Amino acid sequence: MKPVYITRRETFNAAHKLWREDWSDEKNWEVFGKCSNKNWHGHNFTIWVTVKGVPNPDTGFVINLKDLSKIIKDSVIEPLDHRNLNLDVPFLKGVLASTENVVIKIWNEILDPIKDAGGELVKIKLVETENNYVEYYGGKEPI
Ligand code: NI
């Protein structure tokens, strides 16, 4: 039987800045522009988590969406919503808070819980603005 891909969407908002302490103010501005504003800026993020699997013959589910939603809420929304990504989030400590880096770290947080719930995580799409989003398809390599 061929797999089915199921996606759950959740939202959160958070502040961040793109900034390297080891760079001068000028260099940070040159590379990161307005995103380097010292007093932070915020985004309304949307996260789409896609899980792959063969529907369970008893339930018809690839993964129970109640379980998937709870995993995302506990592991992503709770630690990130209304937070400062540079300062407040243990699993983002020391990480330059670009959307690319954040999506990789989120992957590492939800991969095992989704596996434990019987699903296979295959993709996370993290939407930062209506014009920008990133997609990540896996790997557990550290950044
Ligand atoms: Ni930003």
Could you characterize the architecture of this molecule?
The protein is α+β, with helices and mostly antiparallel strands and 143 residues long. It has a single domain, classed as Tetrahydropterin Synthase, Chain A, CATH 3.30.479.10. Helices cover 29% and strands 28% of the residues. It is built from three helices and five strands. A five-stranded mixed beta sheet has the order 3-1-2-4-5. Strand 4 (120-127) and strand 5 form a beta hairpin. Helix 2 runs antiparallel to helix 3. The site of nickel (II) ion (NI) has 4 residues, from strand 2.
Contiguous low-pLDDT stretches (5 residues minimum) are none
The overall number of domains is: 1
* CATH domain class name: Alpha Beta
What's the CATH H-level superfamily name?
6-pyruvoyl tetrahydropterin synthase/QueD
Shape category: elongated
Return Rg in Å: 17 Å
Tell me the number of helical segments per DSSP (H or I, 4 or more residues long). 3
For this structure, the CATH topology is Tetrahydropterin Synthase, Chain A
CATH architecture: 2-Layer Sandwich
Order of strands across the main sheet: 3-1-2-4-5
Distance between the termini: 36 Å
H and E order: EHEHEHEE
What percent strand? 25-35%
Q: Biggest sheet, open or closed, and with what strands and sense?
A: 5 strands, mixed
Mean pLDDT, nearest integer?
Answer: 95
Ligands in the structure?
nickel (II) ion
